[in-house]
């Protein structure tokens, strides 16, 4: 199982330079030594390199309009349409999962932000949008709007999911480990196969299934709920909005209050009744 | 019809001082001369004053934990539970509509951020959370977490909706005018009575009905869609996520592609087919 690290690499600072792709890979900043996008379509993309390989790339510093991979011949000429699969899908997944992407600029990338030689780590970006369009060469390309964000986010280690990750007929795995928030949210979503614990719906997008990790007792002051799976529900956006804004709450026996039915649970995911009680006492209007 | 202004008041700068509540009201910063919360439960709250009247208020500068109104006797002692109605509901509505709230600190408010005399405009805050708890006096109070945000947001004028605003049996009004974004989003939501144009659902929260204004051709680079009602749909959060992430799109005859059915429309809301086409060509995987 391959380990994939989201966020900064320990001991690598924004602005650090690497003479070549091998050293960049050994430092853990960008694994592949040729490909521009590092990612898994099941988990997301952890890093990209801007190296002048795609004529449609645009670089505004804090905002990058990046081009997906594929459709080029051996001379790097665009000769076919790109598809939203493989690493292109991984970058879309980084959007729907709000995962940070490490950005590296190479000397071949035509931009005032590029280093004069070698490769330079530019910090963390979020994928804010992805779409397709007809590129300069007349073929469909997938594009990504990457926006720089405060890079004090914690480093997160993700293990690649096993092959049975998306096949519900095979034995489901709960062995993928992530340190801190991303992993905990992903764990809860995976345990429920992205199905809302209230309505059973899993939202379908072109990046795959989508669900939200809803903290029961909110994080931060003055609530100070823990960032733990026991304090997270897997909800669709609609029920997340309702839950956070007093549209419904949950009884100690997990029946819903304000909505019919009860919270769907799976054995591996233990919801702590104390957080449910906190939510009921603080967020529901009529209790 | 009373005019309510959201955002900064023209010519009033953050830090400006006012000797008394009458001058504060005349300047348009905070209308009521006694009440701490200015707002309508149908539209939202446009401003609050911190003046030491509520023992549970907490002030951390950029973050304020504010207490709702009500439940006090003539000596400002908490003697009864507060309810989520009237101006308290207006502050909750400001959360679900993401409206900016002007914050004013008075000399009576015990905080290092208070002026030594009179009242001082502290800028714009967003309501990030609202909940109830048992206050120091033993009665239920409603609380609001207000967080300072970049105050370059445009000023928005809102006219109070007429009384029939929330009564579907009476004649519906489309005459409430807001300058810029808030008004346009609100217009579209009101025209559809907060019902999703895809599924017909209006999300219920303790702050009232909830819907999202979804831009069809996205705002900003490189799409540069206009902030116009012709480019906005009223969607539930689920269909907003799906729409923005290629889960479905719309044909020129307004039938849905990727989902069964067709877009629900109302006469007053004209959706521009050119923006629909842009979305279809750029966001849907299979067209």
Please give a handful of descriptors for the protein shown.
eight-stranded mixed sheet, two-stranded antiparallel ribbon, 287 residues, PUA domain-like, alpha+beta, homodimer
Write up this protein.
In chain A, a hairpin with a 2-residue loop joins strand 11 and strand 12. Chain A has 287 residues and is an alpha+beta fold. In chain A, the strands form five sheets. In chain A, strands 2, 3, 4, 5, 6, 7, 8 and 9 form an eight-stranded mixed sheet that branches. A two-stranded antiparallel sheet of chain A has the order 1-10. Chain A has a two-stranded antiparallel ribbon with strand order 11-12. Chain A is elongated. The termini of chain A are far apart. Chain A has two domains: 155 residues, PUA domain-like; 104 residues, no CATH class. Chains A and B meet through helix 2, strand 8, strand 11, helix 4 and helix 5 of A and helix 2, strand 8, strand 11, helix 4 and helix 5 of B.
């Amino acid at each position: 199982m391959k380990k994939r690290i989201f966020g900064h690499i320990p001991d690598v600072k924004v602005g650090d330079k690497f003479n070549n792709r091998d050293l960049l890979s050994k430092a853990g900043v960008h694994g592949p030594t040729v490909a521009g996008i590092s990612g898994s379509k099941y988990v997301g993309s952890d890093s990209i390199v801007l190296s002048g390989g795609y004529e449609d790339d645009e670089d505004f510093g804090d905002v990058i309009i990046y081009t997906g991979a594929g459709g080029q011949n051996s001379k790097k000429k665009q000769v076919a349409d790109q598809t939203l699969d493989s690493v292109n899908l991984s970058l879309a997944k980084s959007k729907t999962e709000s995962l940070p992407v490490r950005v590296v600029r190479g000397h071949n990338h035509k931009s005032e932000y590029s280093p004069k030689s070698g490769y330079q780590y530019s910090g963390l970006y979020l994928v804010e949008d992805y779409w397709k369009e007809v590129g300069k060469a007349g073929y469909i390309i997938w594009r990504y709007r990457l926006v720089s964000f405060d890079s004090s986010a914690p480093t997160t280690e993700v293990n690649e999911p096993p092959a049975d990750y998306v096949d519900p007929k095979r034995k489901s795995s709960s062995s993928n480990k992530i340190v801190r928030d991303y992993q905990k949210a992903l764990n809860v979503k995976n345990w429920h196969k992205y199905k809302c614990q209230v309505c059973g719906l899993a939202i379908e997008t072109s990046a795959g299934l989508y669900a939200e990790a809803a903290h029961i007792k909110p994080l931060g002051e003055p609530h100070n709920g823990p960032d733990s799976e026991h304090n997270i529900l897997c909800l669709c956006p609609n029920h997340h909005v309702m839950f956070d804004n007093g549209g419904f709450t949950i009884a100690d026996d997990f029946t819903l209050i304000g909505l019919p039915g009860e919270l769907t649970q799976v054995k591996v995911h233990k919801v702590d009744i104390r957080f449910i009680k906190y939510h009921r006492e603080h967020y529901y209007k009529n209790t």
